[in-house]
Automatic annotation (TrEMBL), chain A:
This is LUD domain-containing protein. InterPro entries: FTHF_cligase-like_sf, LUD_dom, NagB/RpiA_transferase-like. Pfam families: LUD_dom. PANTHER family: LACTATE UTILIZATION PROTEIN C. It comes from Halosolutus amylolyticus. Residues 69-167 form the LUD domain. The lineage of its organism: Archaea, Methanobacteriati, Methanobacteriota, Stenosarchaea group, Halobacteria. Coiled coil: none annotated. It comes from the Archaea.
Automatic annotation (TrEMBL), chain B:
Keywords: 4Fe-4S, Coiled coil, Electron transport, Iron, Iron-sulfur, Metal-binding, Repeat, Transport. This is LUD domain-containing protein. InterPro entries: 4Fe4S_Fe-S-bd, 4Fe4S_Fe_S_CS, FTHF_cligase-like_sf, Helical_ferredxn, LUD_dom, LutB/LldF, NagB/RpiA_transferase-like. Residues 42-69 form a coiled coil. GO terms for molecular function: 4 iron, 4 sulfur cluster binding; oxidoreductase activity.
Length: 175, 741
């Protein structure tokens, strides 16, 4: 809904900048290296539904309550990015992506460039069938925060930091 | 209200002003400012609000059908739906669920609906440990206090107070000081309580009938943890939270955060379709991979009626059900900004819309406690994302409270009421202010004797004792010669044949009997622009009785005003109004008092005086006579709250701009005087506290030497009391005979 001009990816980046959320662009070749520079160990994650990339070995992709407890970084896939708000849509999965995106101090959502849509109504329209099919998702915008203790503090119950990774796959089709 | 009651009420308000006022003010002003900034970025804010309103109207209309649909959908998903008649019924069900689960602890994310149920107390009876996981709500649980705001329950508490509370209660090794330390302490402690909880309880901001999803609007992440960590999730929600489909959520997602805390969006919008696929987080099995679990999750949606279906059948209260509990009405309310929800609320709900909720779910008595704190300034009207006319709701409830003990004979049937037949037991204070026109007539006819008498000590203390008129306020001085009498004697200076336009200048009670000067100024300005002026014999607009909740009297006066003006409108004359609160009657409130067609004709044919002057100048009017030649005095301008709601203040500033005046405009919501409100003994201090925010702007070095200009009668009086300079109406600045220029 913002009146800022520019393409969806440009507006996505600008909105994330307003939120003080860093964003890094990468392609399948540079993916592992990009994650290395962003993630702090120990890192956990849930397997990515994108054909061209998978989580590197040093990321525990089979999390348990114990690893959830000790992880510093959580890496999960985002199904949609919303340009106007700098939001990412995080689908909940049986493998625990909801928890992985919530418990660790740093959350790294991976969103494909072509999944960045312009606005909220487009994102919700896309979510409708998933939800009617029993799916759940979180529209997450920046880190967890509270102002209940008298000043704005990041990391109330959830992550203190979010670092968005935009995966540019140049025409990779859906899995 | 007796003198003792008034005194007790005044004491309570003073206490809240002293103890909670500062923190509430800082927080609500921040939220409110954030809203202004955030909605300014929206391309089509009004269209989004219309869309949101239409969805709620449709959903409430089809509510029984949607309840059936959501029940079916949730049950198909494997969850359970329970439709509870009232709080006791809901609590019984929730206790049964907890007991079946053998629950020792329930973790709960903030929900006003669960506050309405007082479910914590109900569960505690069974020995269940209920832990609030929203940080603000947890602070209140530790302090054993009630929420003072719908969205930010602990806004009345400062960082220092919370630190002191935590240090006393928990005795940490290192005393906690900063917000960061307090937050991290709470995060850790609550995190541990969540990990071995048996049941998670949440509310629901919205429920979608088509998918059975619940939408939760949060920033902390505690709702996500509460819903997902334990294997059992109980969501409690009023039936009005259901919308037809997932797609209907979009406008609300865009509006709710902006309207409430002034954020474009909150950190998390959870769209959960329970029972969710997410694995249970069981720390008793720390090494079992989530992917290997096969959880059997249990989900209960407890839908609560508790008076809502009756509200749906009540033509006036029905609007309340459109409320999305965003708190914009509280944040934009000048009185709320001063005292917060512990004064401006009933058993559960706080803020502008609380009157509707309390009247609907707890009954009129709960609403009566704070209903008078709504001054009808209407600043919440444009703030509400679903366009609820909250001041009207409050007026309706006030009217019903006035009629209590009247055998309910007049309830819900205003149109059939006999004019001026307010109930016999009506509070004499309300009767006095509601009949201001009669008083003004008498006062003017007997001036200056009436003014002299009104100034006498014994009269003032009698007025204070019997009707609660605070003796610290100066009373208006009635003029012996009314505006109409002056004009009849003087006659018109513009021949109707030569006139560009013909105007009916509405002689509102205050202009006609008290501030006759601004009426004379209006005549001279209009004539300087070649307008032929008429001042007919038209009575009070009904604003005074309406503000006291005397709808029948207001209704009768509205009909009389319309009857007196209809002929002029037919003749193509424009109705011009000096007092913004009277214009707001014509443009807003008359919609509820007159037949539709009559309302529309008067609305479309009436103008605020500076709006009209602006139109004349834009259409080639010659401003020479209004302009001094040089630059006029620098101006500090305070527009009127109802005028701003109607978007009319811009005409005044535009005219001043055109005539090369340097203007600083106030941006507070209301002056605090608000008609009769500031005269009332029980509210005098609150009125002054609200006014202080305006006074600060006009005693600022940028404004302290400026000419103080205000559009409303009450604003002028309040500014006169707050500052050591008198305020004038904008039309007096433009008056060709003015000495202000």
């Amino acid at each position: 809904m913002s009146v800022d001009p520019g393409s969806a990816p440009e507006r996505f980046e600008a909105a994330l900048a307003d939120l003080d959320v860093p964003v890094t662009y990468t392609d399948p070749a540079g993916f592992d290296r990009t994650l290395e520079t962003i993630a702090r160990e120990p890192a956990i994650g849930t397997s990515l539904p994108f054909p061209s990339v998978s989580l590197p070995d040093w990321v525990d992709d089979d999390p348990t309550p114990a690893s959830l407890d000790s992880a510093v970084t959580g890496i999960t896939a985002a199904s949609i990015g919303i340009a106007d708000y700098g939001s990412v849509v995080l689908p909940a999965t049986a493998a625990g992506s909801e928890q992985v995106s919530l418990f660790p101090d740093l959350h790294v959502p991976i969103v494909r460039a072509e999944d960045v849509v312009a606005d909220m109504s487009t994102a919700i329209a896309r979510l409708g069938p998933d939800l009617r099919d029993g799916g759940s998702a979180i529209v997450a915008t920046g880190p967890s925060a509270t102002a209940d203790m008298g000043a704005l503090v990041k990391g109330a119950h959830g992550p203190k930091d979010v670092h968005v990774v935009v995966l540019e796959t140049r025409g990779e089709s859906d899995e | 209200m007796s003198e003792t009651d008034r005194g007790a009420k005044a004491d309570r308000i003073r206490h809240l002003l002293e103890t909670e006022g500062e923190a509430v003010e800082a927080n609500t002003l921040g939220f409110n400012q954030g809203r202004y900034e955030s909605v300014a970025d929206l391309e089509d804010y009004e269209a989004l609000k219309d869309e949101a309103r239409a969805i709620k109207e449709d959903a409430i209309e089809r509510l029984p059908e949607l309840i059936d649909e959501v029940t079916e959908t949730v049950e198909e998903n494997g969850g359970t739906v329970y439709l509870a008649d009232d709080a006791a019924d809901a609590n019984r069900y929730i206790r049964d669920v907890a007991s079946e689960k053998d629950a020792g602890r329930v973790v709960k994310s903030k929900s006003m609906t669960s506050e309405e149920l007082e479910v914590n107390d109900a569960l505690a009876e069974d020995g269940v440990d209920v832990v609030e996981t929203d940080l603000g709500e947890w602070v209140l649980q530790v302090a054993d206090e009630a929420p003072s705001h719908i969205v930010a329950p602990a806004i009345h508490k400062s960082e220092d107070e919370i630190a002191q509370l935590f240090n006393e209660q928990f005795d940490p090794e290192e005393p906690l000081e900063t917000a960061e330390e307090l937050t991290m302490f709470a995060r850790e402690r609550l995190g541990e309580l969540i990990r071995d909880a048996d049941v998670g309880m949440t509310g629901a901001n919205f429920i979608t009938a088509d998918s059975g999803s619940i939408m939760l609007v949060t920033s902390e992440g505690n709702a996500r943890k509460s819903a997902v960590v334990p294997d059992t999730h109980v969501a409690v929600a009023g039936v009005e939270k259901i919308v037809p489909s997932v797609e209907d959520l979009a406008p609300f997602i865009e509006l709710i955060g902006r309207s409430g805390t002034g954020q474009d969006i909150t950190s998390y919008i959870s769209l959960l379709t329970p029972p969710v696929e997410s694995p249970v987080v069981d720390f008793d099995e720390p090494d079992v991979a989530f992917a290997d679990r096969n959880d059997d999750r249990d989900f209960h949606l407890v839908l609560i009626d508790n008076g809502r279906m009756a509200m749906r059948d009540d033509e006036q209260l029905r609007e309340t059900l459109y409320c999305i509990r965003c708190s914009a009405c509280a944040n934009s309310c000048a009185n709320f900004q001063s005292v917060g929800g512990h004064a401006f609320g009933g058993e559960t709900y706080t803020g502008g819309i609380a009157t509707g909720w309390e009247a609907g779910v707890h009954g009129q008595e709960s609403a009566a406690e704070f209903n008078d704190l709504c001054t009808g300034c209407t600043r919440c009207v444009n703030a509400c994302p679903v366009k609820i006319d909250i001041p009207w709701l409050n007026t309706v409830v006030r009217d019903r409270i006035n009629r209590e003990g009247d055998d309910g004979q007049f309830e819900f049937v205003y149109e059939e009421l006999v004019p001026d037949e307010e109930p016999g037991g009506l509070d004499p204070q309300k009767r006095l202010f509601g009949n201001y026109e009669t008083l003004a007539k008498l006062g003017s006819a007997t001036a200056p004797l009436s003014n002299w008498m009104a100034g006498l000590g014994p009269v003032r203390s009698l007025l204070e004792r019997v009707v609660g008129v605070d003796s610290r306020r100066d009373l208006p001085e009635f003029q012996r010669e009314t505006l109409r009498e002056w004009y009849e004697k003087r006659g018109s200076r513009v021949d109707p044949i030569d006139a560009d336009r013909e105007v009916v200048l509405y002689p509102d009670t205050y202009t006609n009997y008290v501030d006759v000067d601004r009426g004379k100024a209006a005549v001279r300005v209009l004539e300087a622009l070649d307008v032929h002026v008429r001042i007919p014999d038209v009575g009070e607009s009904g604003r005074a009785p309406l503000s006291q909740g005397l709808i029948a009297t207001a209704d009768e006066q509205a009909s009389r005003v319309y009857a007196a003006l209809a002929e002029h409108i037919d003749a193509g004359r424009d109705v011009v109004v000096i007092e913004p609160s009277d214009l707001a009657m014509f443009r807003r409130e008359y919609e509820n008092l007159l037949p539709e067609r009559s309302f529309e004709r008067l609305r479309d044919g009436s103008y605020e005086i500076l709006e009209y002057v602006y139109g004349l100048l834009e259409n080639g009017g010659d401003p020479t006579e209004l302009r001094d030649g040089g630059e006029g005095p620098p101006i500090a301008y305070h527009a009127h709250c109802q005028q701003r709601t109607l978007g009319l203040d811009r005409y005044t500033t535009a005219v001043f701009d055109d005539l090369v005046y340097d203007v600083v405009e106030s941006d507070v919501e209301c002056c605090g005087m608000a008609g009769s409100f500031g005269y009332k003994r029980e509210y005098y201090e609150l009125s002054m506290d609200v006014g202080e925010r305006l006074a600060e702007q006009f005693t600022d070095p940028r404004a302290e030497d400026r000419l103080v200009v205000a559009s409303g009668t009450s604003c002028e009086e309040q500014l006169g009391d707050l500052l050591d300079r008198d305020a004038v109406h904008p039309i007096e600045v433009l008056d060709p005979r003015s000495r202000l220029r």
